[in-house]
Amino acid sequence: MDSTVATERALDAAEELFYRNGIQAVGMDDIRAVSGVSLKRLYQLFPAKERLVEAYLERRDAHWRERLAEHVERHRDPERRVVAVFDRLGEWFAEPGFNGCAWINSYGELGAASEPVARQVRSHKAAFKDYVAKLVARAGLPVQLGEQVFLLAEGAMVSAAITRSTAPATHAANATRLLIAAHRR
Amino acid sequence: MDSTVATERALDAAEELFYRNGIQAVGMDDIRAVSGVSLKRLYQLFPAKERLVEAYLERRDAHWRERLAEHVERHRDPERRVVAVFDRLGEWFAEPGFNGCAWINSYGELGAASEPVARQVRSHKAAFKDYVAKLVARAGLPVQLGEQVFLLAEGAMVSAAITRSTAPATHAANATRLLIAAHRR
DNA sequence: CGAGGGGGAGAACGAGCGTTCTCCTCCTCG
DNA sequence: CGAGGAGGAGAACGCTCGTTCTCCCCCTCG
């Protein structure tokens, strides 16, 4: 098996298992079993579990933001794009196997114990917030709204995970529409 | 040492250690060392670590909501009370040792592995949401606003933890004021 | 005073797991 | 064909940790 392929399979397994069960609950041997990549190879590709965790979060970050952007950019109207963030969140919440925000979960689990993980989380959240801020700016709306929409999004993710419901996406979208109107006048 | 006192000391140690370091990172022996309660006694009081975790979350829930209520009820104006939720959050975020929402963290760490913990988290969040809803209703504002304020609060907690900043409380409070005004007209 | 038992200190046990090592297979290249 | 090395299977190692056990002290009560 090619080294690139092995890396990909390892990351696929890591994503599936870490996201569903949490990081500490998954052993390297579980990764081996699901990916079919031997332990020896795994440790060649990722010298420690922590590195695999970092790589998992990093790859997931790229994918997650890509899919968000795809969804948002289907809309032309810059104001509509801001609200479209919550369309994407609602869709995500409804996916089978949705289990909350991988970064928030990882932070709760390892933020205190692993600085590299904490860094990944901060970097992902900063990137997401920047993206929202950009959407808000393009719509000619004030910076403040960016912060507010970001907080609504974070709240929706957490709440959707804990209550196993998609409703928070709708509530957050409603709030966003009201806030936009309020800022417009 | 009286059995009531031992329970209290065990819970004090649990709260300090679990909240700061995460639950899985803390061993029963650490609880023993900090509380001064012997392992034998610990296991008499809490037949398994999971029970201690449940008790920790339960006691913290009572305290947390008490302190929120105290803060909110200093204000007479029912509308002001809604915003006062974020005054309390801001104060909390600034406390030394603030490390995010204990329930969100626990859910990220153990929600997938422990049904009792997941239940505690859901119950705490439901209680907090109900409290916000009650404040909103007393101010003669529509139910929808309750959901929105709740999401802002959750988002603020998560964001304050990850960025180690108190600013989210201010942003959420601003959003809430705008939403109240929007709902009033 | 002596038996009994509750409680403490800490060793012990058993499982899980991150990481490494051993041994074997098989492919490659001279 | 033969040497060498990469890679796989899985055992082994060492550590952590939840939980239990042993041994001892000391207080209580007859």
UniProtKB/TrEMBL annotation, chains A, B:
The residues covered by the HTH tetR-type domain are 4-64
Matching entries from SUPFAM superfamilies are given as: Homeodomain-like, Tetracyclin repressor-like, C-terminal domain
Please list the residue ranges the record marks as binding DNA. 27-46
Report whether Flavoprotein shows up as a keyword of the record.
no
What GO molecular function terms would the record report? DNA binding
Where would one find the signal peptide in this protein? none
Which top-level group of life is the source organism from? Answer: Bacteria
Q: Which UniProt keywords apply?
A: DNA-binding, Transcription, Transcription regulation
The keyword Transcription is assigned to this record: yes
Which protein is depicted? TetR family transcriptional regulator
Which organism is this entry from? Streptomyces silvensis
